[in-house]
Design goal:
Rna Polymerase Sigma Factor, Chain: A, Rossmann fold, about 350 residues, two-stranded antiparallel sheet, 9 helices, nine-stranded mixed beta sheet
Length: about 350
Amino acid sequence: MTCWRIVSAGQTQSDGAVSAAPHSFILSLPPLALVRGGRVRQHRAAAWWWSRADDTPENPRTDVPTVLLVHALTGGARAGGEDGWWEPLIGPGRALDPQKFRILCFNNLGSFYGSSAPGSAGFPRGKKATLTSLDVAGAILQGLDALGIKRVHLAAGGSLGGMVVLALAALAPKRFARILPIATTAKTSAWVAGWNHVARGVLQVDPGYPHHAARGLEVARQIAMMTYRAEPGLAQKQTAQTIGGYLEHHGRKLNSRFTAACYEAQLDAMDHHDLTLPLPGGRRPALACIRAAALVVDVDTDQLFPPAQSDQLVAALRAADVFVSRATLRSPHGHDAFLIEWRQLEPLIKRALKLSVS
């Protein structure tokens, strides 16, 4: 039997109107079978919800459209509000207005912020703990089931979040009306998997690995930061004399809030992402199962998921007779533009919310 509990709630004011404050809560879910053979028992998912005062996780209204957000590699369920990873886009009067939409985000399976993850009770060990993007999507689908949400107006996410958005739409094509995959791909490339391999190597040479790989996690993050950014953007704020301090700062920040084991689990989910293959038990490529209207967005300076990969994704979706629109974030900042370019992202979200669906 599924159940859930709220761990925080409240009210907030905006322009004289009262709306519910964001809710953070934990869902207790059924065991989850993983694609590569493991099984998550005592399955938990941390979730974040922001909607109208009369639309709550305990009693969701059927007339409030759901916008599902999926976070990237080291993000969490808190998408909006203070410290939210898309905070400038979420709130009264913004692109994602909780007076108009139910905004929902789950912490990824295998991540650090409350969902089942390496080291938690019931999480598999060894090779059977290797996650895929389909596993992360499967956990989110269980969360939607537990909340009684049968239809999603829009699912959006960038990077690993974009991979999971595509996996969700492939696994449950009737559930998702629209998708907004940003700075992502249908299939992880050797380039991305190669950087992830280097990150794992750095973690594993730390003498404290796997439980206390503090310096390894810091250096892995530093390497990742260089792939998330682009030279023109770094040159705006950093010099040869300051870049080291900038990277050390970001390494320490991640070490203060994440673990090496969770980092590896998220890298696994990214590496084992390939929707050009059939779903388990299927025959067609997973992408061919998608029915949601899509707005595919790339970043012109992205060195992890360059525009050519978005071109390939668009072509595959159109071949599956999916309505696809295309856009580009133009930014000096590289891959992380989807967490920086708020002025460009706002109209794209509004456009995605209005995509025509059959």
